[in-house]
Design brief:
Elements (H helix, E strand, L loop, with lengths): L20 E10 L1 E8 L9 E8 L5 E2 L4 E10 L2 E9 L4 E10 L1
Antiparallel strand pairs: 1-7, 2-6, 3-4, 3-7, 5-6
């Protein structure tokens, strides 16, 4: 697979926010359109959370594989967070969801 890589510089805000950004990860094995659920007391319905998805190998190292993967919705709830993901592959793949939220 040979996809074009697009480069960009990163802009940093001139003022630093007093808020702290937290992150966590969860590993799932799945394919197709699925809801990936992660239990954690860190989340409540009002938590503003974003998520990303990447394929990982058996050592949990991320890599760009041949499967196209997308996240459609992220729903925090009291005690966890759900992600609606589409993993376009015909067999299960190991994927890592990374969650980011403000505290």
């Amino acid at each position: 697979m040979n996809l074009q890589t697009i480069e960009s510089g990163m802009e940093v805000d001139s003022e630093r926010s007093a808020r702290v950004v937290f992150s966590a990860t969860a590993i799932f094995t799945a394919h197709g359109q699925v809801i990936l659920n992660a239990d954690s007391d860190l989340f409540r319905p009002s938590t503003r959370v974003t998520a990303s998805i990447v394929e990982v190998d058996n050592a949990d190292a991320p890599f760009i594989g041949a499967a196209r993967m997308t996240i459609h919705n992220v729903r925090p709830y009291q005690g966890g967070v759900q992600v609606w993901a589409n993993i376009e592959w015909n067999t299960d793949l190991r994927v890592r969801i990374s969650y980011f939220w403000e505290g």
